Every structure is written in structure tokens, then in C-alpha cells.
Amino acid sequence: MKGHDRMKRFLRALNRYTVFFLLVAFVITSCLSLFVTVLSKSLGITLTEENVALAAKITFWNVLLISAIFALIDTLRRKLTVDRSVKHIVEATKRMIEGDFDVRISRLHHVFSDDRFNEIIDCVNLMAKELSGVETLRNDFVSNVSHEMKTPLAAMQNYSILLQEETLSDEKRMEYAKAITDAAGRLSDMMTNILRLNRLDNQTVYPRTQRYELSEALCESVLLYENVWEDKGITLETDLEEGIFVTDDRELLSCVWNNLLSNAFKFTEAGGSVWITLKREGEYAVVTVADTGCGMSPEVGAHIFEKFYQGDTSHATEGNGLGLALVRRVVDIIGGEISVMSREGEGSCFTVRLKRDCDRNETLA
Fold first, then answer.
1. Closest Cα to residue 195, out of 34, 25, 320?
2. What residues does each domain of the chain span?
3. Contacts of 269 (CB under 8 A, 6+ apart)
4. N or C: less crowded end of the chain, CB within 10 Å?
């Protein structure tokens, strides 16, 4: 391998020398021919064959020497302006290949450096930064998935062992069987959300738009949780303005409403209140879901749309931290906006703004 590399370097050096030789030979021969012709005519000198042959030999050796000097100068120039810079970049990229995404390449400031290499260095540094972020997200994703899968699997395993006891009463057997079913459901929901997020992130899901009245879709989502708010004694107040149409993917948006409503009912204590409103604001339809639940601190609120993030670090409440990440992704794809206002101990209010489908004759307020 080393012998092959040495041969390649030799051939490249020979190629550069040949180029310089041909260039110098052409320039010197042309200049000397013109010079000698003009000089002989001006002074009336007759050139003999011996004189021309001697001059040709001297010129040939001069061409060889000048070509060698030019090739040497070009080699030094390449080492200073190209090879050193390329080596600087290659060493850093090799470390990235080995998995070190914290490496950063310092910009070149020496007098022989080419600013175009600094452009490449800036791009490589940006790439390393992005790869570092992706690697961190990947590690967090694996860690979080492992943790979230471990909890329901451990519950299923423990209750399965308890079910094997011969003296177990029918009541306990049904209780443990239900616990296993609930854990399996949590695991299934988590896998479903992961697959949804993966398809959305990879743009393999394309919105299938249709024009529909938004208040009807919200009512459908609200009715899915009728048993939840009745069992907890939660007061539900709705103020849904009719006649507001949107042209979006109804199924994707149902994921948004279902997740927001599920969180509102889940984090609101028994006897609390949940409000759902739909208003038009100019060319936008504005949906708010508010509750009197536990609320969030500013630190928690800053991360709630991240995958697997849960403000309840004890995991006392059910969930896997994927719902709001899914909500944010869907809203982004549809081209809407989502924001949250919350105070710890007082509740939260999520606001979704969607571009509404205005009638042609309608005047925007």
C-alpha cells in the first residue's frame, strides 16, 4: 500500500513537471525565435547551423532547470496553501467518523491560507454541531424508550407471576388481569405514537386536506372523553363558534384535539373545570383548551413539546411524553401555531391558531 502511494505521488510530481516543462519550452522557444529573428534582421547577422545548434542545447537545459524550479515552487505553494489546510480538515473529519462530534476545526489565519477553505471549515463545524445534536437526541430517545417500555413490561411480568398463585381469589385475579391489560395498552399506545412521529418526521405522511366545520370536529373529540369528565366530576364548559371552516387534514388534527383534551382531563383534579373555546380572529381560527389542573413551572413549560419529556419526573401520572411532541409536529406540518400559558398550581391554557377557510364574500374582522 505504501509503495502504491509513493508511486502515485511520483506520477503526480512527474505530471506537474511535464506540464511546466511544456509550458516553459513553448514560452522560451517562442520568445527566443522572435528575438533572434528580429535581431538578425536588424543587425544583418547570418545565423549558422552551428550557432543555432549550440543555442538550442543551452536553451533546452535552461528549460529543464527553469521547469524544475517552477515545479519546486509549485510544490511548496501546494504544501503551504492546500496540503496543510486539507490535512487540518481531514484529521477532524476522521475524528467525526470515529464518533467524536464535539470536534471543531479552527479557522485558518496564516498568510498563505485560502478563504475558500474557511468556508469549508465553517460548513464542517456546522455539520458536526448538527450531528452532535442528533446523536444526543438518539441517545436520549433510546434511553427514554427503554425506560418507558420497562415500566409496563415490569408491571405485566409482576402481575403475571401473581396470577399463577392457586389461592388467588377471583376478584384479585380480575384486578391483576386488568392491570396487565392496562400496561399492554400503554405499551401499544407508546408504539403507535412512536410510529406516528417517525412517519411525520420523515415526511412519509402527507396531509389529506378537506374543507369541514371545525366546531363539529371539536365536538366529536370532546364526546370521546364524556365518561372521563363525568367520573371525575369535572365541569366542562364549551364556547364553540359555528360557521368556522378550515381546509386541513381532519384525522391529523383530531390527534391534536385528543391529546390536548386528554391532558386537560388527566391533570385536572376531581371537581375541577375544563374550558374549550373556538373563536375567529381575522383570517385565523383560534382553539383554546384550558384547565384548572396542576399547571407547570416555566422550566417545565419550555420543554413540554420535546419527545419523551415529562414534567412529572416521578412518572406518577400515566403517559410517555410523546403526546405533545406529536401535537407540535402535526401543527407544524399543517402550518398552524401552538402556544401554552401555565402557572404551577393554577392550570394551563393551550392555544392553537389555524388558517381558516374564509368565504369569498366574507369580510375579515
1. 320
2. 2-100, 145-201, 210-355
3. 232, 292, 293, 294
4. N
Angle CA 303–306–307, to nearest 5: 145
- Give the integer Cα–Cα distance in Å for 329 and 249: 13
Report which residue type is found at 15: N
Name every residue whose Cβ is closer than 8 Å to that of residue 251 and which is 6 or more positions away in sequence: 208
Burial 106-145 (b: 16+ CB within 10 A, else e): eebeeeebeeebbeebeebbeebeeebeeeeeeeeeeebb
Of the candidates 254, 276, 272, 262, the one whose C-alpha atom is nearest the C-alpha of residue 319 is 262
Cα dist from 219 to 54, 216, 272, whole Å: 105, 5, 20
Fold assignment, 145-201: Helix Hairpins (1.10.287)
Decide if 245 contacts 290 (C-beta within 8 A).
no
Q: Check: pTM over 0.90? Answer yes or no.
A: no
For 66, residues 6+ apart whose C-beta sits below 8 A from its C-beta are 24, 28
What fold, for 210-355?
Answer: Heat Shock Protein 90 (3.30.565)
Distance, CA of 60 to CA of 50 (rounded, Å): 15
Question: What one-letter code names the amino acid at 151?
Answer: T
Report the chain (365 residues): mean pLDDT per 10 consecutive residues: 68 76 75 68 68 73 78 77 77 80 76 71 82 64 64 81 84 87 78 67 66 91 86 90 88 84 89 92 92 82 63 45 76 86 88 80 46
What is the C-alpha separation between 294 and 311, in angstroms, rounded? 11
Helix axes 250-267, 323-334, angle to 10 degrees: 150
Could you list the beta-strand ranges (E) of the chain.
Answer: 210-213, 235-240, 245-248, 273-281, 284-291, 337-343, 347-355
Grid cell of 358 as nine digits: 374564509
Q: What is the pLDDT of residues 328-361, one digit of tens each?
A: 888 888 888 999 888 888 889 999 999 988 654 4
